[in-house]
Amino acid sequence: MLKTLTALSLAAVFALPTAAFAQFPDRPIKLIVPFAAGGGSDTVARIYAPELAKALGQNVVVENIAGAGGSVGAAAGATATPDGYTLLMATPSTQITGPLLQSNLPYDPDTAFEVLGTIFDSPNLLVVPADSPFQSIEDLVAAAKDAPGDMTYASPGVGSSAHMASELFKLMTDVEVEHIPYKGTGESLPDVIAGRVDWSIDSMTSMLAYVRTGELRALGVSSLASDPLVPEIAPIADVVEGFSATAVNYFVAPAATPQDVVARLREAHNEAVNSPELEKRLNDLGITLVRMTPDELDAKITNDRAKWGEVIEKAGIPVQ
Fold first, then answer.
1. Do the beta carbons of residue 152 and residue 197 sit within 8 Å?
2. Rounded to an integer, what distance in angstroms lies between the CA atom of residue 214 and that of residue 130?
3. How confident is the model over 31-83, as pLDDT tens digits?
4. How far apart are alpha carbons 282 and 285 in whole angstroms?
5. Before 25, cis peptide (omega within 30)?
6. What's the pTM?
């Protein structure tokens, strides 16, 4: 009898997760963006969230948690209760540059997350103010060489993909330019537009609208080849041979999230990214949806970590 009761009790216990999560989700879900409002990841998250909400039948609320190049928000996502109700829009700083630049990350970048799906792997734009004297990358590089250290560039934070792309540009053109980090693209943009900094390499998501309104001038795109969504903007690689810098954004949950919840979230993500409305709105921003398997994303993270680790070492960017 004791064995029978024990077996029944255990069966009931193991049945609890399935019963508990059968109704998932039964309340709103929070989607953390690890940068301030107004940046590329935030813009995409606010377009993506309503489509994910439709697929799940629950509201998805975007919350910005900025700081330390994205690591504060990433840590909030990694350490959240693993029940599927707190998710993270992961960026390169989450698992690629964060571990290279911070010695005391409050999470393990290799084990803290369960990948739910990739959203995009987007190039950046090199932009200058509309009234800048620089009409080309050649102009910009020549001016930087003529006055080493006098020129400035903006980024949305140390360790961000924009920061890494800019340091790669400096190394490949052998120029000395001062880095002015901000807490997000939303904070840096007014200074770039106003000319308080000389240039920025930042996400096409954030910059393209201002290029189209004439507030910024695009000197180049950071993909190796022309981007089909903005064929009028020449690749930086046309002048700086081999230059390439893109930013992958993807959707994750804390690692211990139950697998039935993970499966539901992946299903909803796939439904969301197959929405024609989502694709059109992202295309209008110059973004092409990218669908990677978890293995393909893992390979990209590994390769990019090696690439940007070399940039960090050569540029002498200090580890904090």
1. yes
2. 6
3. 999 988 888 889 999 999 999 999 999 999 999 998 887 889 999 999 999 99
4. 5
5. yes
6. 0.82
